[in-house]
Fold this protein.
Amino acid sequence: MSEERKKTTLGTLFSKMNKGIPITMLTCYDYPTAYFMEQAGIDMLLVGDSLGMTILGYDSTLPVTMDIMIPHAQAVRRGSPNAWLIGDMPYMTYQPSVETAIRSAGRFMAEAACDAVKLEGGAEVADRMAAVVRMGIPVMGHLGLTPQSASALGGFRVQGRSAAQAKKIINDAKALEEAGAFAILLEMVPNRVCQMITERATVPIISLGSGPHADGQLLIFHDMFGLYPKFTPKMARVYGNAGQVILDGIKQYVEDVTTLDFPQRENWFTMKDEAYAELKALLEEE
Ligand code: KIV
């Protein structure tokens, strides 16, 4: 199954943007999934703090820490050596100060061999983004629905529907570009606003539920395969119901064990007759 692929670089991403070839991006949190994504040729992988919800079952991303993120980022890197790997900075790992931002970003690079980090917010985080970029770490911006601020934004809902809100997002995108963002993710922003930002930007704009007029698309892996039991958001396309396959398989296993259908001869290991006889003799000697 293994296929040779070249390492994705910033050059690859900008070249795709300039040629109008859409950039592909998915969230990823573990080794086997990263392995398959590597084989499929995904450009960018995001080890999102969404793992707090998709993997750990929290109701929000806020309880996620760097110590939780790092082992996941390491596993993804082991599975995908060549995708452009982005570590998502968890809540309060960049908000407090420039120093916390640089230290957290540095951990993703040094401990998990990430290529870049992502942080949420607009002009208000531009100084921290600029400082991390100055340290030689590429940073992706994230505007629109920024889940770490879901409470202030009125929940997990579309952002930028009014002209004033949309203008703020457009200004924030400019501020992030000026701070040195290598790309900006727009989550749940109206398609026309996304298109305006894409037309104005000189860095790749990635859409998550923000329409087709962007330089690339992102989906949350668990939404694509029916693996998030609580709900499937409108912005996701479902490519298969792995959740149902897993549930059916587990039910069948319960049935097979209960009815003594599992295990069968091919599922266990044997001992040669001589060794068995010797063992019995040894036990009889006691
Ligand atoms: O954590 C994450 O996966 C994200 C996406 C929602 C963009 O930030």
